[in-house]
Fold this protein.
Amino acid sequence: MVLALTNSAATGRIYNVGEPQAPTMAERLADFARVAGWRGRILQVPTSELPEPDRMPHNFAHHLAYDTTRIRTEIGYEEIIPHEESVARMLELERAV
């Protein structure tokens, strides 16, 4: 946000902020597992086979697409923390809760 606030080219513009390529849920879980040092297997099962408390409360059946090209090309946005470190930080935050 600071980049957009301090760059006059951003005036009146709307930007999507996110990863250049969003991973699938399975890819994101695999990243967390790798960074945490977990060597188990991640299995995909139908929601109906999970106990109610373990089900995701949202419907992810739809596709969600966004493009971060504008913020990257117009005002030079880029990630300042490498992916592996950001995953490690997220795990640290989750463990602290």
Observations:
- Residues 2-96 form one domain.
- Helices lie at 2-6, 25-36, 69-74, 83-96.
- The CA atoms of residues 47 and 55 lie 6 Å apart.
- The chain has four helices and no strands.
